[in-house]
Amino acid sequence: MPSRQASARYSAFGLLRRGLTHRDWPRVWREHDLAPAYDAVIIGAGVHGLATAYYLAAKHGFTNVAVLDKAYVGGGGSGRNTAIIRSNYLTPDGVRFYDRSVKLYESLAAELNFNVMFSQRGHLTLAHNDGSLRTMRWRAEVNKLEGVDSEVIGPKEIKRLVPFMDVSPEARYPIMGALYHPPGGTIRHDAVNWGYARAADALGVQIHQNTEVIGIDVRAGQVRGVQTNRGPVSAPVVLNCTAGWASLVSAMAGVALPISTHPLQAAVTEPVKMFLRTVVVSGSLHVYVSQTDRGELVFGASTDAYPSYSMRGSLEFTEELAGHVLALMPSIAKLRLLRQWAGLCDMTPDFSPIMGITPVEGFLLDVGWGTYGFKAGPVAGETMAELIATGKTPQLIAAFDLARFAEGRLVGEKGAAAVGH
Which one of 325, 347, 369 terminates a domain? Predict the structure, then answer.
């Protein structure tokens, strides 16, 4: 029998061999024939759809579930975001909701047995004028009342956290203070998608890539199933977890949504030595920046002003973004931009999501996430799974129902979500 040390060497060699040759690697999730019927069909294999499927199986024992995606796992908004996590929102409903998501992210790697690389490095939202500073104080007090760690700090403390930031009074956009949120940070979005997909698959959930939903069957006011490019599928519950095409998918079931779709662009630089330890956001300048574990700077801004389904970058975005970032950190002027991309954001009138039931029985929504859907993936999955399993809307998402728009119960999050991050 080989010694423990020899076994360790063999395991290390085996890992190296597999890493170089890719031979004998087990599939992270399996391929299946599309069954004619499931207990629930989830449209969209991003973090929301995968998390819902996982929690349905793990917490409620629902395993006869299909997750359908017209492309591939994490290929939509879940693979095109800048992966910032935070809970320093403005309304009590929003703060409680996103704080639960942060808590789930903190233990996600252990729960899924998959390294999602969550780095809680802190989150700074800068204030450049008196109005912004008042909003930061407002958010800080709401956060504290809900038990979330947030406080307003001054230029001296900002300089300590971000030494390369220009906090001098002579700056083009003087920094008067910032909302500092220590639990905020970044995560690897692809790892989150793969972790949920692997865990859901292991529990019996079927994930079907390249399976486009082309119709939703509704009879007598109740959903009966979906039509796909691979054939019909019957199910008493259909959940719309799409981003970018949420309104088009819902229209298949005869449900109209108050959503407009806008591109959100982002960019990344060449890698450099780590110097930016926190996430930095400026709502006034419509820009945010963080540094990855590889050393790249990731930049983003607010959504494009016009509705569109385009996912191409634009020179106008790059020029405006560069000018605003350099106003904050002039010393990075010589960094080269490597690439830029765009994703699609479904924006609601109050900048809050639409979650829960619809006038069509069995047709459920988890949509309208705008620029902040990825950070809500775990809690959205947990609550939507509870709704599907019990038939009762969890209190945590009751405020985000579709009926609020007709009844005038808006959840105004624009002051905390107007910048795409």
Answer: 347
pLDDT digits (tens, 9 = 90+) for 147-193: 999 999 999 999 999 998 999 999 999 999 999 999 999 999 999 99
Domain that holds residue 127: 121-183+260-347
**Quick one: 202 exposed, middle or buried, by C-beta within 10 A (0-12, 13-18, 19+)?**
middle
Same domain, 233 and 219: yes
What's the pLDDT tens digit per position in 205-218? 999 999 999 999 99
Is residue 272 a part of any domain in this protein? yes
In whole angstroms, how large is the CA radius of gyration of the chain?
22
Structure tokens at 316: 């106008």
**The pLDDT of residue 418 is above 60:** no
Count of residues for the chain?
421
- Say whether pLDDT at 56 is over 80: yes
∠ CA 384-388-392, nearest 5°, is: 90
- Is 329 in the same domain as 216? no
Centre a 10 Å sphere on the Cβ of residue 58 and count the other Cβ atoms it contains: 19
Distance CA 365, CA 252 (A): 13
- Any idea what the CATH number is for the domain that residue 225 is in? 3.50.50.60
Average pLDDT score over residue span 384-403 = 97
Full strand arrangement of the beta sheet holding 65-68 = 206-208, 65-68, 40-43, 238-240, 363-367, 354-356
Q: What is the mean predicted confidence (pLDDT) over 333-351?
A: 93
Tell me, yes or no, whether 410 and 264 share the same domain.
no
Instruction: Please report whether residue 20 resides in a domain.
Output: no
> How many CA atoms does the CB half-sphere of 344 hold within 13 Å?
19
CATH code of residue 141? 3.30.9.10
Neighbours of 333 (CB within 10 A): 9
Same-domain check for residues 301 and 254: no
